[in-house]
Amino acid sequence: MNSILLDTSFCIRLLKQDDPLHQNAYQYFQYFLENKIEMYLSTIVVSEYSVRDDINNLPLQTLKIIPFDFFDGKVAGKFYSILNDNKEHTKGIERLVIKDDCKLIAQIYNRKIDAYITKDRKSFNQFFNPLQKEMKFSIKLLDLSLSLKEYKNELF
Questions:
Q1: Torsion sign (Cα): 65, 72, 119, 114
Q2: Which phi and psi angles does 22 have, rounded to 5°?
Q3: In sequence order, what are the residues at sequence separation of 6 or more whose Cβ sits closer than 8 angstroms to the Cβ of residue 26?
């Protein structure tokens, strides 16, 4: 893994020390730094994060900001169309969440980013896997709910 897109849930927990997943986020962040994994931050995540906190509180000097552009919009629309054709993939998930996640997946897809870290892996997997299969691409999905040790399959 050489690159990863950070989800809003990751960014929130990275700075919120009283959150149960703060330690996981912090350890992953250190791991990404130590292993020179390029960390990307979408302008979509910037807008979501900014609702609750100043984006400048994040370690922006270590992140590469990527704008949501015309080409991302085109691909996101295609992804959303694929999911709309089979409502089973989006059952029980808010429409706005699906739209924003399609935008993030489009950015990952267009920039050939290797991985994505999020807390919401279950619902994300629900529609993420069908998109990967349909569009014939693969992205590593990291679950923030798992500690770094669990992710690396180390024994305690």
A1: negative
A2: -60, -45
A3: 14
Higher pLDDT, 128 or 9: 9
Q: Quick: pLDDT tens for 40-67.
A: 999 999 999 999 999 999 999 999 999 9
Residue appearing with tokens 């996640």: 101
List the CATH code of the domain at 14-151: 3.40.50.1010
Give the DSSP per-residue string, 38-84.
Answer: EEEEEHHHHHHHTTTS-GGGS-GGGEEEE---HHHHHHHHHHHHHHH
User: Which of 148, 46, 66 has its CA nearest to residue 109?
Assistant: 66
DSSP string, 84-95: HT-GGGGTTS-H
